Amino acid sequence: MPLRVVGAGLPRTGTLSLKRALEQLLRGSCYHMHEVFEHLDHVPVWRQAVRGPLPDWETFLAGYVAAVDWPAAAFWRELSEANPDAVVLLSLRDPKTWWESADQTILPAARHEQPPDLQEWRRLFQDLLRDRWGQTDGWNNKGAAIAAYERHNAEVRSTVSPDRLVEWRTGDGWTALCRALELPIPDEPFPHVNTRAEWLKQD
Ligand code: A3P
């Protein structure tokens, strides 16, 4: 089953809300980092993909109708080529707020030791930061990370043809997504999950 949506936005740009929204709109499963935590056997597949060769996407992502967030979104270029009819979804937010969010939630997982069952996952996260995002110290350095965030978004915009690209800013709601997917706008608020407050409460 081809993907109908390929996420190209960086983590902490509303990707879990988008997963919920896309699953509701498309009535299927959307791949997200949450899937990796549920299937830790996917970690070596993604680590291998970083080094090449790539997996057979159709087999590996069989059963998914969309993919957002890393690790999948770190392969936005390859996945959008493999799924030429998919919408490419670039999720965005203010760069400074994005840094504050990433710095306080996901980036500590790259900086610090993880429990034994997540050590390989941490290596994957570091691989993605370094090899797919070009950051060797960007996960400690606000200026470098924000510059890389902006570079990434500019690269997606300059690569993806405008008729496929949907830019979605946190707070945008359903409209642009539904228009691109030619689906009616649901009569309920757009999801807003995975907030920093929720995340910090778990620790
Ligand atoms: P904060 O850390 O600033 O709360 P992701 O799911 O990619 O990790 O992104 C989570 C971040 O996106 C959180 O930021 C969350 O509040 C914000 N977010 C998610 N859905 C949103 C929405 N519908 N409107 C505004 N912000 C949203």
Set down the secondary structure blueprint.
Layout: E1 5-7, H1 15-26, E2 29-31, H2 33-38, H3 42-51, H4 57-60, E3 64-67, H5 76-82, E4 87-92, H6 95-104, H7 107-111, H8 119-132, H9 142-159, E5 165-169, H10 175-181, H11 196-202
Parallel strand pairs: 1-3, 1-4, 2-3, 4-5
Bound molecules: adenosine-3'-5'-diphosphate.
The site of adenosine-3'-5'-diphosphate has 18 residues, from α1 and α6.
Q: How many H/I helices?
A: 11
Task: Report the principal-axis shape.
Answer: globular
- Give the strand order of the largest sheet, numbering strands 1, 2, ... along the chain: 2-3-1-4-5
Order of helices and strands: EHEHHHEHEHHHHEHH
Judged by helices, strands and strand pairing, the structural class is alpha/beta
Distance between the termini: 38 Å
Determine the mean pLDDT. 96
> Ligands in the structure?
adenosine-3'-5'-diphosphate
Beta fraction of the residues?
5-15%
* Share in helix: 40-55%
Biggest beta sheet summary: 5 strands, parallel
Number of strands: 5
Radius of gyration: 16 Å
Low-confidence stretches: none
